[in-house]
Structures are given as C-alpha cells and as structure tokens.
Write a structure and sequence with these properties.
Elements (H helix, E strand, L loop, with lengths): L12 E6 L7 H11 L5 E7 L2 E7 L12 H6 L14 E4 L2 E4 L5 H14 L6 E7 L10 E3 L4 E3 L11 H9 L10 H6 L2 E7 L8 E11 L8 E8 L5 E6 L2 H6 L7 E6 L24 H16 L5 E6 L10 H14 L7 H9 L12
Parallel strand pairs: 5-14, 6-9, 6-13, 9-12, 13-14
Antiparallel strand pairs: 1-3, 2-3, 4-5, 7-8, 10-11, 10-12
Helix pairs in contact: 3-4, 3-9, 7-8
Length: 366
C-alpha cells in the first residue's frame, strides 16, 4: 500500500477587476464575493485606485472544516492526508472510486465516458442516482466559447471526456463540490436525475430542467458559464427528488446505464461546513445503524436495475462527521460487493491499465 502521493498545493488566485463591479459597502462586497467564489476558496479584496485586487486562497487550517474529528481521522487514514491535500484525494477499489470531495465525481464520470467510448458503447445519456443532502446543480466556473471550453481560474482547456483536463479543473476549483453535475449535462442528450434526499432540505417533486448559459457576473464580463434552470416544459433532462428509495429507483430508465453517486452527507450533514452549527440547525444526522439500513435498501434496488452501474463514494469533510468515515465507507464497499455492484470488471481493468498511478483503496473488513 503506497502513501498518498502529494500534488502541488493550489496557488493563490489573483485577479484585477474594475472598481465598479463590487460595492463600496464592505458587507455587500463580502456577500457577493462569498456567493461568487466556490466552496473551498476564500476571497480577499484590496482597493487599488480604479480597480480591486482580488486574491482567493484555499484554507490551510482544520478549523475551517468545523469537524473536531477531521484531523485525527485523516492522520490515521489508510493514506494519511495533509490539510493541503484534502482537495486532491481519491482512490479506487475495483470499479469504484472513493474521494473526500464530491467534485471528483466528475473525474470518475469522465473515466467512465472514456472507458465506454473505448468499447464503442458511448451512451446518449445516463441515470444519475444522486444520494446527497444538496442538489449540486450550481454553475461551474467554466467559460464556454463557440469552439472551446476553458477553466475560468486556470485558463486551461476543458473537456469532460478528458479526465486529465477534468482533474485540472477540479484542482483549480473551476469545478467544485456544488457544481460537478452541470459539466456532464452538456455532453449528454438525456440525463435522468433521481435525487435521494433523506432530510427535508428539498420537498419531494418531479420536474424537468434545461441547460442554458449565463453571463459571468464578476471576473470575465461578457463571457458565459453553463447553468441549468427548471422548467414546466418536458425536456430530455429530468429531475426527481424524494426520501423514498423505491420512488427514486422506479423513476429510472432501464435503457440507460446508471451512475450511482453516494455522498455520505446524505446520511448525516451534521456540520454543513457552518462554523455556527448547532444541534438545532441540523439538516440530518442519522445513526450508524440507520445509515446502514438505508444502504442495504439502496443496494437491493441497485442490484435489480438490470443496467450497467458505475459507482463513486464521497466522504465530504466538514459535512459528514469524520468519526463515521471508516465504518460507513467500509460498510458500503462490503455490501456493494455482496450485491454484485462492486467488482473487478472492464472499468477496473481499464483504470488499472491506463491510470496505473491512481491509488488503490484498502480497508479493514469488519
């Protein structure tokens, strides 16, 4: 078992923008900057004549993530992870990927697309079973021109079917933890999202959505970013949210392969990356046994789908309590193998052959 291979820490991002793009009122300015920059980037502004100098940096203190058990958990993880490496960590177990941040879901899906293309099985669409306490349908910081797509923060070219370019976009936060689904949508003719949300964060509903492009409101005036909007008009992009496992799986299309995305904050979103959290503001905080019971129900439905299933797991620092990580992640992997979802197959062979530098996830079987 190798140690986690450190990547270069993300450099501070520096920008200059005209003075009029930000309010002179410090509270309004802070509100706009915090809303604009993705989670995991902390913006700081300094007046400089007719411009604002903007610097955005990644947090380097565990306190940012609120969870008191995060630091000891990462020190004792199978691949010990430093605070600066949180945003880079992912590892593979057979045909499944485990990551800390769920922005890496897009990287896994990019690998899936590349693998299917290599087999002549390019899909026109997917089912996406999205187990999460958040929608994650925000607009990524990607600029889409007529002939190319670029990361807003790094200026690198972006292609959702090129895993290396996706990894770079995630590293530079152009694709973040709340914006990793939208880049997939543009590649597909249809996407059927079943959002399994066990809290009351979203009222049960069934609707459609469409892709559109909206002008960036701060750094690159006149250029556009991809986004989605819900619509009453029927489209090939569908969204259903419910706490019912059966209802979500009944809405899936049996002709489409399925992406199974398990963000563990769907079982417990104790902290929600909020330093002011309290037990009274919790969204959902299931016990270990309650979470395991839901995991059993999910795999029972997944095993009956009759479609190809591609699965990834996210542990969500600052959201899902770190003291649960090892037990819940191990349980998901063991149960996934029992139900035949997790296995050595064409995808695992493809990753081992073409991406041999990726870490292998190892765990103690309980």
């Amino acid at each position: 078992m190798g140690a986690f291979k450190k990547s270069k820490p993300m450099p501070d991002l520096k920008f200059e923008i005209p003075r009029e793009r930000l309010s002179e009122d410090s509270m309004l300015r802070r509100e706009k900057l915090d809303h604009y920059f993705p989670c995991g980037l902390i913006p700081f502004e300094l007046a400089n004549g007719a411009i604002w100098d903007l610097i955005a940096f990644t947090p380097d203190q565990f306190d940012y993530y609120v969870d008191p058990y995060l630091e000891p958990t990462l020190k004792n993880w199978a691949h010990p992870v430093h605070i600066e490496e949180l945003g880079s960590y992912r590892a593979f177990y057979k045909n499944v990927m485990v990551s800390l941040f769920d922005s890496w879901s897009l990287y896994y899906w990019s690998l899936v697309l590349q693998f299917l293309r290599s087999k002549g099985k390019e899909p026109s669409g997917f089912n996406l079973v999205h187990i999460d306490d958040h929608q994650d349908l925000g607009s990524p910081h990607l600029i889409y021109g007529d002939s190319e797509k670029r990361c807003l923060f790094s200026k690198d070219l972006f292609d959702v079917e090129d895993p290396k370019s996706v990894a770079q976009a995630i590293h530079y936060k152009s694709v973040g933890i709340g914006t990793f689904i939208v880049p997939l949508i543009e590649r597909l003719e249809t996407l059927n999202i079943g959002h399994l949300c066990f809290s009351d964060a979203f009222a049960p509903q069934k609707t459609c959505f469409e892709l559109h492009y909206e002008e960036d409101q701060l750094l690159v005036s006149g250029q556009h970013r991809p986004a989605i909007r819900f619509t009453d008009v029927c489209t090939d992009y569908r969204y259903q949210v419910s706490p019912s496992v059966e209802k979500i799986f009944n809405c899936l299309d049996s002709d489409l392969p399925t992406l199974l995305h398990i963000d563990c904050d769907g079982f417990s979103n104790r902290y929600n990356l909020d330093s002011n959290w309290s037990p009274q503001t919790l969204s959902i905080d299931l016990t270990i046994n309650e979470a395991k019971s839901l995991i059993d129900k999910i795999f029972k439905e997944v095993s009956a789908l009759g479609t190809d299933v591609f699965m990834n797991i996210c542990l969500s620092p600052g959201f899902f309590p770190a003291e649960y990580w090892e037990e819940i992640c191990s349980y998901i992997l063991i149960e996934g193998e029992k139900w035949g979802v997790i296995k050595k197959d064409g995808l695992s062979d493809y990753i081992a052959t073409h991406y041999s530098n990726e870490m292998i996830y190892e765990f103690d079987r309980m």
